[in-house]
Amino acid sequence: MKAIVVRENGGPEVLRCENVEELMPGAGQVLVKIHAVGINPVETYFRSGRYPVAKFPYTPGSDAAGEIAAVGDQVSSWSVGHRVYVGGSLTGTYAEYALVTPDQIHTLPDRVSFDQGAAVNVPYATAYRGLIDRAKAKPGETVLVHGASGGVGTAAVQLAHALGITTIGTASTENGRKLVAKNGADHVLDHSAAGYLDDIMKLTGGKGVDVILEMAAHINLGKDLTVLGKFGRVIVIGCRGPVEIIPNNLMGRDADIRGMTLFNSTPDDLTRIHAALVAGLTNGTLTPVVGKSFSLAQAPQSHLAVLEPGAYGKIVLTP
Fold first, then answer.
1. Quick check: 42 and 51 in contact, CB under 8 A?
2. Are the beta carbons of 103 and 78 closer than 8 angstroms?
3. Which domain holds residue 54?
4. How does DSSP assign 185-237, residue by residue?
5. Average pLDDT of span 259-280
């Protein structure tokens, strides 16, 4: 079978498409035929050496969608042919097949394509954990999704809209802003435009927002604190560099900056989160957006694209 193999840290060129040994599920394992792979920024950090990896060589990836091709002994909850999306893998998902444990796969409703299914795990689980678990956002509050046209941003807007949370979404391109509006944002702003912070204050009657989901804290965190309401919460979801803030902007508001990573979720957390996501995918509340698609051999290009500004939906590979 074909798979992307990384044998050393480096640039996108270290993502090499190779023929590797066929996989067979052992006891307690499931083999998934991969139809689409979700690309996440964190995978570029492992590839480059910014985050350490356990060992080389390895196949990247945790997100995908496909069909169950085989099940090992002691697996009774899944059967061959079942449509699933993947949230974690034993062997990596940048491949034609992947081995997973039963708790790493979730039902993919018929209304959701495989490409869309590959866009679920990290983006939607991250958005849910940030908005619900860390921010504890409630209906009637106002959330600013700073960078709302990317994978996590689109998920956050859809979730907030479904929960009755007034949503202000930002994007730097016209197409991105159209997508944010389509996903249910009550207000859409251009975060590259002068004066957009003033617009946020006007939209909230001068009170500021209750919650900010921040995808680029290295750029925005200092500014975020100036539009945060009393007892507000900033959830840092993404950051690629150092940050300078004025603590007084927190103190006068009794406000919080809260970090988060999906990797800190417990198994019980993930069971609860994915139960909610499957329900939303089934009833149409949640509809993943795919912006770009590459072949498996184009994995290096996908790693360049996922870090480009002006994000639009999710980037996927199709083996």
1. yes
2. no
3. 2-120+288-318
4. -SEEE-TTSTTHHHHHHHHTTTS-EEEEEES-HHHHHHHHTTSEEEEEEEEE-
5. 97
Omega of the bond prior to 52 within 30 degrees of 0, cis? no
Residue 186 is assigned to a structural domain of this protein = yes
Closest by CA to 316, choosing from 14, 128, 179, 306, is: 306
In this prediction, residue 161 carries a pLDDT of 97
- Quote the pTM value: 0.95
pLDDT at site 309: 86
**Other C-beta atoms within 10 Å of 5: how many?**
20
pLDDT score of 113:
98
The tokens describing 136, both together, are 């504890």
Q: Is 194 part of a structural domain of the chain?
A: yes
- Whether 55 contacts 18, CB under 8 Å: no
Q: Position of tokens 């990896």?
A: 53
Does one domain contain both 87 and 133? no
